[in-house]
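<instruction>
Derive structure tokens from the sequence
<data>
Labelled lines for chain and fold
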Amino acid sequence: MQYSSSGTVVLVQPKRPVANDMNPSLLPSQGLNTTAYVLVQSLSAPTMPAQLGLTPFQESFTVKGTGTEVSMIGQPFVFVTARSPDPQRCIQIVSQILTRAEKELAERQKDLRVTNREAVRLSNVVTATPPKFAPGIREAAAAVALVLGIILTISVACIWDRAARRRLAIAEENEKETTRNGTPSETVSLTMKAPPQLSAPAPAEENHSTPAQLP
């Protein structure tokens, strides 16, 4: 089970730029977008999770940015989203990343020798939000497996039903064909008559009368 929290900051440029002390990060005109892009790439470095002490394969985060062309206030935003099995840990990770973003931005401008008056700053728009349940890879895989199982079951049932209907249709067609053509064993009935019995001749009757005596 995974939980997520998110936070949003915006890059704010100096209010009164001085021509003789211009911030190199703001050159050319798209320099503020470039600064946001470089900051996002720095925070998304492969070594950053280990530097922040994230637990491998359990905790993670993503950093995304938007340019001034999609921002209603004309300044780029940076979005941070953290995931962890521990709800409170998500909030801590978001806070760590936002703090690290401020540090990375300050160090970059320090290397460019930007004065504090001309430095670009990060302004919090949304601090770490309350953690909420976020389906992880395992939950998503289980959901996909369940959907695929349902689809497979329905497909097998349809195939089986189609095959059963086909077998039934073939059987009915064969039965009709048999009825139409007929077979000798079914249409012709042979009546075997027994031969006539011959009665034996009646035995001759014996004459038991006494013969007449001659005179």
Residues 137-181 form the longest helix (45 residues). The first strand starts at residue 2 and ends at 12. The radius of gyration is 50 Å. The chain is about 40% helix and 15% strand.
